[in-house]
Specification:
There is one protein chain. The protein is an alpha+beta fold and 205 residues long. Helices cover 16% and strands 43% of the residues. The strands form three sheets. Strands 2, 3, 4, 7, 8, 10, 13 and 15 form an eight-stranded mixed beta sheet that branches.
Length: 205
């Protein structure tokens, strides 16, 4: 079953998943002017680097850029590579405060992605790394090009899709990462860049 929510109601009380997890889409959480300003700041002040992954023994670098920030020098491992968090910038702390105020959650780190155009995306995956708080909330804030974002249940293969808007916030929590995959499908219809912030809770060991 396929469900497209391109004109869905937004809000904290609406769960976009039919079962096995919780996803809330808050829509715009700031003015257009504010979102434009943050997009420019994030593109120019974040320490962007190509993402790395070790797949079948090969060291791969992506066109997509990433950055990792946090309360302290957290180490975060995924795709067989480990990143160490940089100290927060003022802009990231401001955006974290917005995400926390809207959701009632608390976050101690942020993984950022810079997609230069629609041709750059993210394959099906779930954020189930051992460093993350089990069933913890992940707050996803989007700037720039509007992009389709999809979920797929790991067993039933049922899909749910929506459009993430400029200056918007989406939250994934509870058992979402256990039961659902998500992706940012590539598209040749989008030529503008997109910056995505995923606020997370790293468990200190």
């Amino acid at each position: 079953m396929k469900m497209d929510l391109f004109n869905t109601t937004t809000g904290a009380d609406l769960n976009l998943l039919p079962y096995g997890g919780t996803v809330n889409y808050y829509g715009h959480v700031m003015s257009l002017a504010m979102a434009d300003s943050y997009l420019e700041l994030l593109r120019n002040t974040i320490e962007w680097k190509s993402d790395e992954a070790i797949i079948l023994g090969k060291h791969i670098f992506t066109k997509r850029k990433v950055a990792w920030y946090g309360d302290r020098e957290f180490e975060y491992t995924y795709s067989n590579t480990t990143k160490k968090a940089l100290p927060w910038t003022n802009e990231l702390l401001e955006l974290k405060a917005i995400a926390e105020q809207k959701t009632g959650e608390t976050f101690n780190s942020c993984l950022l992605n810079l997609y230069h155009s629609g041709e750059e995306g993210m394959a099906w995956h779930s954020d189930g790394e051992k460093d993350l708080k089990k069933n913890g909330a992940i707050g996803s804030m989007s700037f720039g090009a509007e992009r389709k974002f999809s979920f797929k249940h790991k067993e039933s293969k049922e899909t749910v899709s929506l459009i993430l808007e400029h200056g918007s916030l989406l939250v994934m929590k509870d058992a979402t990462q256990t039961n659902w995959l998500h992706r940012l499908p590539p598209t040749k219809l989008v030529s503008k860049p997109r910056v995505n912030l995923t606020f997370r809770s790293i468990v200190q060991r």
